[in-house]
Write a structure and sequence with these properties.
Shape: globular
Bound molecules: D-gluconic acid, manganese (II) ion
CATH topology of the largest domain: TIM Barrel
CATH architecture of the largest domain: Alpha-Beta Barrel
CATH superfamily of the largest domain: Divalent-metal-dependent TIM barrel enzymes
Largest sheet: 8 strands, parallel
Helix content: 40-55%
Structural class: alpha/beta
Length: 383
């Protein structure tokens, strides 16, 4: 029941299962996992797909013939295992040249280089069948507000995303872009810090239909936000093109914990939202094993992400089937009919003249305490 199937659309980044446990205070603790071995591992674990930054697969200084060899070996591993490449992204943060941003750098030459690097990554993605291209602007931000008018940053960002949409159209790639927000880290403040901010920005683009969001659990938690609500807004706007699932202990450094490791109730309501909405996209786990772990722990982390998702999906079914929970919910929905509120002049006149007993309406409680306790008991396995 909790064995991942291809139809579950679970994916991992080469950088997640390949994460070597380096942090700002210590070096790598795990050996290199080659992209080919990484794909084999994901195939064994039952993942549907693998995603990567350009340089997770192709070293930045690879020659064209080295690149071709790497792509041949990687494609062979994909063939062997049946693992797909649904999403590709670009590293615009590791190289020193990007230390003040890529698309928002003061230097026009750096912005152009960032575009060149992104177009090359898009070519590789298209070749491997990726339909989503994620842009995470980790260095697009500031520590010193004297250094840059943020409106310039946003204008340059917009120019670059517009440029990339034109490129995708020119090349006839079946590719949509998904913007990933993060409030901070590695920059003190990152521009467009939340999914809601990204949605506002997308509306200002030249091809808004080509661009959506890739919300990440940990990132919204870092901003103190309710991840499920952020994802709901993206769904409501038809902009949930991709999702990064993991976990996080509140507003501190980005932890990319195993999905469900920390905020089990939020994880449950997130799974419920995705399943109830019939979300058909990828369920990408941007989680990596703790630095304490070896290769066994890496498997436990990746396998655990998928298993927890599947367990929560069963809990969603149980929630929908639970008579006491459903009775409380139907009591809530019985508090008004389903007709939308629509303005008409005559209707507004009637409403202005009608009497409303606000005291009577306010008397009855909502039953949320009981509902939450029942949810908790269901999650804790005693229902
Ligand atoms: C992070 C980000 C990244 C991005 C990845 C895709 O905080 O490090 O979540 O993992 O998802 O770079 O572009
Ligand atoms: Mn993250
Ligand atoms: Mn991410």
């Amino acid at each position: 029941m909790y064995t991942p199937q291809a139809s579950d659309h679970f994916t991992f980044g080469l950088w997640t299962t390949g994460n070597r446990g380096r942090d700002p205070f210590g070096s790598e603790v795990r050996p290199v996992l080659s992209p080919v071995d990484n794909v084999e591992l994901l195939g064994e674990l039952g993942a549907y797909g693998v995603n990567f930054h350009d340089n997770d697969l192709i070293p930045i200084d690879a020659t064209p013939s080295q690149q071709a060899q790497i792509l041949r070996d990687f494609s062979a591993a994909l063939q062997r295992t049946g693992v797909k490449v649904p999403m590709v992204t670009v590293n615009l943060f590791s190289e020193p040249v990007f230390r003040d941003g890529a698309f928002t750098s003061h230097s026009k030459a750096v912005r152009a280089y960032a575009l060149q690097k992104t177009m090359a990554a898009m070519d590789v993605g298209a070749q491997l069948g990726a339909e989503i291209f994620v842009l995470w602007g980790g260095r697009e931000g500031a520590e010193v507000d004297a250094g840059k008018d943020p409106r310039d940053g946003l204008r340059w960002y917009r120019e670059c995303v517009n440029y990339l949409c034109e490129y995708v159209r020119d090349r006839h790639y079946a590719m949509r872009l998904a913007l990933e927000a993060k409030p901070n880290e590695p920059r003190g403040d990152i521009f467009l810090p939340t999914t809601g901010a990204m949605l506002g920005f997308i509306a200002t683009l030249q091809y808004p239909d080509m661009v959506g969001v890739n919300p990440e659990f940990a990132h919204e938690a870092m901003a103190g936000l309710n991840f499920t609500h952020q994802v709901a807004q993206a769904l409501d706007a038809n902009k949930l093109f991709h999702i990064d699932l993991n976990d996080q202990k509140g507003p501190r450094f980005d932890q990319d914990l195993r999905f469900g490791a920390e905020n089990i109730k939020t994880a449950f309501f997130l799974v419920k939202l995705l399943e109830d909405a019939g979300y058909t996209g990828m369920r990408h786990f941007d989680a990596h094993a703790l630095r304490t772990e070896d290769a066994v722990g890496v498997r436990a982390c990746a396998g655990g992400c998928m298993r927890t998702y599947l367990i929560l999906r069963e809990k969603v079914k149980a929630f929908h089937a639970d008579q006491e929970i459903q009775a409380l919910l139907s009591d809530l929905s019985a508090r008004g009919d389903k007709e939308p509120i629509v303005y008409t002049e005559a209707g507004a006149k009637r409403l202005r003249e009608s009497a409303f007993d606000r005291h009577a309406e306010a008397e009855r409680g909502l039953g949320y305490e009981r509902l939450d306790q029942l949810t908790m008991e269901l999650l804790l396995g005693v229902r």
